[in-house]
# Entry
Amino acid sequence: MNRFFTPIKKYSYILIGLTFLIATFFLPNPANAQSDFSKSQRVTVIDSMEVPANLSRMQVEDDLLKQARKRAVEQVTGVRVNVANVSIATESGNDVFESYQELVRNSVSGRIIQESEPKFSWGSSQVLYIHYSATVAKETESRDQYFDVEMEINKPVFTVGGEMQLTVELSKDAYITIFSITEGGKVSVLFPNAYMTENFVDGSTQRIIPNDKEKDKLSFTLQSQSDNPKSKYAELLLCIATKEKVSYDKLQTDMKYNSNWLELNRWLMKIPRDHWAQSYVSYQVFPK
# Structure
């Protein structure tokens, strides 16, 4: 069972928010029938960074890895990469994290679809080196500038027990899939699900998830983390709108446990770039 939902009463479910499932599905349109990975390239990046006195080695390794990923995409696309960073800060302004930095913006024309474990080594006492290898798939199409999606959340900060509700608007009729991305980069499918399988959205209306009728069957009630119930956490929700129908049955069949941003990138590369649009929101959950 998808651990995103936990029963609280008959036909009522709680959103847990950290461990989910992601799917890589096959779109029925023949134009989308196979991934265009023929233009993918395996590249290697050797880079370095001076270690500031105020940062730990773990922090420097994280920054160096982000830089290496960026340069790997640049090697394949030949363009300067602007990485999509989404920072979520607590009310005090501390504990900022970036949970979307690995997903390159759609203007970049390339995505990392596979990578090897990076190797770090010291040069001098203040310089850290990285040896990084990745497979980058090059996007050949451009996005449809007349096809857009906007997603909003009822509020950006919740306490445990609060109920989340999403509002989605489209520039034209489409089908939506909503993913949850955790602070650790794990990706799961939030919508559609077993209780809300219809993901078609009329471009002339707003789609509220869950709406008043759906609340009788399902609620998105935020819980604390099971492994650390007294700590706050944050998540990012990514909405992908597609011109072709996304079958929930196929999603369910193809679901993979505890997936990550690489699988999400591979999933997106299966869809022609002018056939999808994206929007994302972030939220935080504080203990009571």
Remarks:
- The first helix runs from residue 57 to 77.
